[in-house]
Design a protein that fits this description.
118 residues; alpha+beta; Double Stranded RNA Binding Domain; 3 helices; 43% helix
Length: 118
């Protein structure tokens, strides 16, 4: 897993970079080892604009957040990404766990039995 942090309209700050790396490491359980993340941090008119793209297994997950406080925006951004990645992982696992040929519909014979019982 690799994270690239880009700063726009402000000087690069190590505490922001370290906090982003810690939060990105927490997403490891949802990501494969070859995942790449690109975080863009910008300050415009006193408001922090953060945007993140995570590429994993051919899928691209995007999230953006704005807040007056940079740290709050960073935490919200990673929470939003965690929700997206968790949802994607659950869908992927549900797809592999579902028995083949079963779409949630009753078999043809089952309908006739239900009608006969009524």
């Amino acid at each position: 897993m690799r994270l690239e942090v880009t700063f726009r309209n402000l000087q690069a700050r190590d505490e922001v970079r370290k906090r982003a790396e810690v939060l990105f490491a927490k997403l490891e359980r949802f990501l494969d080892p070859a995942a790449e993340g690109v975080l863009t941090v910008a300050i415009e008119h006193g408001v922090a604009h953060l945007e993140m793209h995570v590429t994993t297994r051919g899928a691209i997950h995007k999230a953006s957040e704005e807040d007056a406080d940079l740290r709050t925006a960073l935490d919200r951004l990673f929470h939003r990404l965690e929700v997206q990645l968790r949802r994607g992982k659950e869908k992927r696992l549900d797809r592999t766990r579902a028995p083949k040929g079963e779409e949630g519909f009753a078999a043809e014979g089952d309908e006739d039995e239900a009608v006969a019982e009524s």
